[in-house]
Amino acid sequence: MTGHDSRVFRVAYDKVLAKWPAERQALTVATPFGDTRVNTCGPRDAPPLVLLPGGGGATSVSWYAQVAELARTRRVHAVDVIGAPGLSVPAGDRHPRTVADLTLWLDAVLDGLGAASADLGGHSYGGWIALHHALRAPARTRRLFLLDPTQCFAGFKAAYLLRALPMLARPTPRRVRAFLEWETSGAPLDPDWLALQEAAAGFPAAKPVTGPRPAPDALRTLDARVLLLVAANSRTHDAREVADRAQALLPHVETAVLPDVSHHALPHAAPEALARRLTGFLTGP
Predict the structure, then answer these.
(1) Cα–Cα distance measured from residue 235 to residue 185, given in angstroms and rounded to the nearest whole number
(2) 243: alpha, beta or left, given left = phi > 0 and alpha = psi -120 to 50?
(3) Average pLDDT over residues 203-228
(4) 229 φ, ψ (degrees, to nearest 5)
(5) Which of 264, 92, 94, 249 lies closest to 178 in space, CA to CA?
(6) Is the pLDDT of residue 3 over 80?
(7) Comparing C-alpha atoms, which of 38, 51, 24, 56 is closest to residue 275?
């Protein structure tokens, strides 16, 4: 890993993973794009829930704050996105390059987990992947929750992109920390999680798949029930625009703008209350 210390990354990864329930399992699922790491916990006979992390340095272990509560009623499968920071191992240079590739990859993950269908959850970029998959493979998605998803219902704020550019162009631990401190307005962040984000700087990841927002006509056809939780203080996009557009386009959506939380702090803020809300949505009528 040129320019990246894999040992430091693995130590930081395992330290956050240690915050998960003790009965967790590490699975390796073969896909056409390589071996995908899945961190799993919860009753084996419970309905499956697949969780996708955000972009940048986020990994499957980033769900540490909600996973114990979610695993009470679901068999939770948190995935390291292939080609992104984490413990998934791409097959040479064969990594997803299109939205169709991402759908093929996630279908293969579900197949490997023995799940004909599953609930899906995603934060940020993971929400974008989850929403596209739900639109392209509707029979495989039961319920879908999105935590401040990017590029789904509104574009990025120009100020966010400008602030992120130096970190994206030449990621260093210092730049990662400065960017996260700016976006979260200095809110307290778990030091182990923050150390993992720093350790992911320079990770030899493939270029992430990007693309346009889902077409309005496609969103109007989504039959799955959706929970959309938007961070009121997100510097990523306009929170009210995201909620309003989703409400106007999705047939079966519940939306809420969560006060006093930013985009990158959302997965870790008020974790018990957030996990209860997600569980209530997944198990409700």
Answers:
(1) 10
(2) alpha
(3) 93
(4) -115, 120
(5) 264
(6) no
(7) 51
Find, among 259, 257, 269, the residue nearest to 229 by Cα: 257
Q: What count of other Cβ atoms lies within 10 Å of the Cβ of residue 187?
A: 16
> What is the SS3 string spanning the chain?
CCCCCHHHHHHHHHHHHCCCCCCCEEEEEEECCEEEEEEEECCCCCCEEEEECCCCCCCHHHHHHCHHHHCCCCEEEEECCCCCCCCCEEECCECCCCHHHHHHHHHHHHHHCCCCCEEEEEECHHHHHHHHHHHHCHHHEEEEEEECCCCCCCCCCHHHHHHHHHHHHCCCHHHHHHHHHHHCCCCCCCHHHHHHHHHCCCCCCCCCCCCCCCCHHHHCCCCCEEEEEEECCCCCCCHHHHHHHHHHHCCCEEEEEECCCCCCCHHHCCHHHHHHHHHHHHHCC
The residue with tokens 């073969």 is 30
Q: Is the pLDDT of residue 1 over 60?
A: no
The whole model's pTM is what?
Answer: 0.96
What is the dihedral sign for C-alpha 123, 64, 174, 202? negative
30, 212, 218, 219 from 134: Cα distances, Å: 21, 16, 10, 10
How far is it between the farthest Cα atoms of the chain? 50
Q: Are 144 and 137 in contact (CB under 8 A)?
A: no
pLDDT of 66-122, one tens digit each?
Answer: 999 999 999 999 999 999 999 999 998 888 999 999 999 999 999 999 999 999 999
